[in-house]
Automatic annotation (TrEMBL):
Functional note: Could methylate the ribose at the nucleotide 34 wobble position in tRNA.
Family according to the record: Belongs to the class IV-like SAM-binding methyltransferase superfamily. RNA methyltransferase TrmH family. TrmL subfamily.
Protein name in UniProt: Putative tRNA (cytidine(34)-2'-O)-methyltransferase
The species this protein was found in: Parafannyhessea umbonata
Binding of S-adenosyl-L-methionine, residues: L90, G112, I133
């Protein structure tokens, strides 16, 4: 059984759809607060359909609470060596792709919030656990790149969703991809979780994966 971890998810329909995927694959869902919605949100239940009632889901106060309750921290409260091996942090900033990772049953696939992804402090703590989903560059996918840029300027005074200064720098571990290669193009959270989960399932021989 795998574990899908959503760090401060914001959009209920994404979480609902991921919950549905968890049910049909036997995965557990972990939600780290603060959430951008209530677990009773109608949009969440609508996306999850009746599957939500069968979902194994746990909510945590914060990242540290998640680590402690799942045996991923050492006595000092830091991530243990075994915990680090079981965590897969999905981020645009990783050099390694998700198909280059090795998955074991019980591993935790961690996804960040829709608006900002995972905090840099987590990525810096676990550089070897960071993985990305390859995507085409913006100039091959978006015909309205200028419109996206104008929206960013309007929302953040010229510094927001396209040009977070933090995203344009490498962390102390040198873990991030070329900072000039930051992309607008992105999959939504539910798509990303499904892609990575099914690769993990393929590696452990999930029933039907070898059908040709």
């Amino acid at each position: 059984m795998f574990n899908i971890v959503l760090f401060e998810p914001e959009i209920p329909s994404n979480t609902g759809a991921i919950g549905r995927t968890c049910v049909v694959t036997g995965a557990r869902l972990h939600l780290i607060e603060p959430l951008g919605f209530s677990v009773d949100d109608k949009k969440l239940k609508r996306a999850g359909l009746a599957y939500w009632e069968s979902l194994d889901v746990t909510t945590y106060h914060n990242w540290q609470d998640f680590l402690q309750r799942n045996g991923l921290a050492d006595r000092e409260g830091d991530i243990s060596a075994e915990g680090a091996r079981r965590l897969h942090l999905l981020t645009k900033k990783a050099r390694k792709t998700y198909v280059q990772a090795q998955y074991r049953e019980g591993d935790f696939l961690v996804f960040g919030k829709e608006s900002a992804g995972l905090p840099e402090r987590l990525l810096a703590d676990l550089p070897d656990s960071c993985e990305r989903i390859p995507m085409l560059p913006d100039d091959q996918t978006l015909t309205n790149r200028e419109e996206w840029s104008e929206r960013a300027d309007a929302l953040g005074g010229g510094s927001s969703v396209l040009r977070h200064d933090a995203l344009m720098r490498r962390d102390i571990c040198g873990n991030f991809v070329d900072p000039d290669d930051y992309r607008i193009s992105a999959l939504n959270l539910a798509n990303s979780a499904g892609i990575v989960l099914y690769e993990a399932l393929r590696q452990i021989g999930f029933p039907g994966m070898d059908a040709g």
